[in-house]
Amino acid sequence: MTGTSGVSSECIEEGIMENALVMIAVLDKKGTIFAWNHAAESITGYSKAEVIGNTSIWKSLYPDTEYRHSVTGKIAETLATKNYFENLETTIKTQSGDLRTILWNTKEIPWEGEPKVVAVGMDITRQKEMDAFSRSIIDNANVLMAVMARSRVLLWNKGAELITGYSSDEVVGNSSVWKRLYPDPEYRRTITRQITGIIAEQRYFENLETTIVTRGGERRIISWNTKQIEASGGYHEIAIGRDITAQRHAEEALLAYISEMAMRLKHPVEIIRDNIQEIADLINGGKLTKDEMVTMLEGQVRNASQIAANVQEFQKAIAEKNKEIPEAYRKFLEG
After folding, report:
1. pTM for the whole thing?
2. Cα–Cα distance between 114 and 116 in angstroms, integer?
3. How confident is the model at residue 326, as a pLDDT?
């Protein structure tokens, strides 16, 4: 049968098969190959001439006996209940020795009067590598990362596990972790109202600080940022939480240092001020000899030197006691 252009449907089908960007193989139930398209040649490295008419290609693509039996077993198990399989992921070894991840789908069709199986294999190696790379970045990030749909957790990274103490297995698929992280009902309601109000205005929030309670009962201060992403059937929220507990403790330590230092300096500085004022008054009144003036001023220098020594000693004690203080501040305090 030919179309209006005079090209047969067989030619069209052959052209589609040969130009497809996925592996297409036609085989019988024993695995004998009857058709092997150009993409199959490119992906595997095996030509039609090497493949068609025999079953040896499968041993070449799956050289490891145990793995080949595992794949065969999965196929047999699937075909026992239906005459096709969908999205079967396997790893083949090409003629050059490269490993490629193939996603297989099959369908039974009539072929030259007998039922045959069309196997379509999509090379998803690059996609798998990118997925693994993305997962590696997510898991190795030193922040809490969660993907949620209406508070139900879909992803919980390693950073989240380390910070909260709750594993991905415990968290993914439900929303119960939030009650665990915010066990106080009143505080949880306050945070929920705050988040709801922010999202109602701008659909995301930035640098929202909350205090969570970890599995071990430790309180951690988390700075949250969220972003909404489009997903199938709606939207998902990505929440990134940075543990700023040490930072806040360092800031508190520095504030305590400033307050304490201000108190310690106030009285001795006032004494030096009053003493210098007295010296100035005596000089103006002509009541001091040069030697007396030098003696009194040297006394104030000693007082100032003692204050400086006390300040330096206190700074070192603060730096040693508060390990969370950032390195730049630590060098200043210890200098």
Report:
1. 0.53
2. 6
3. 57
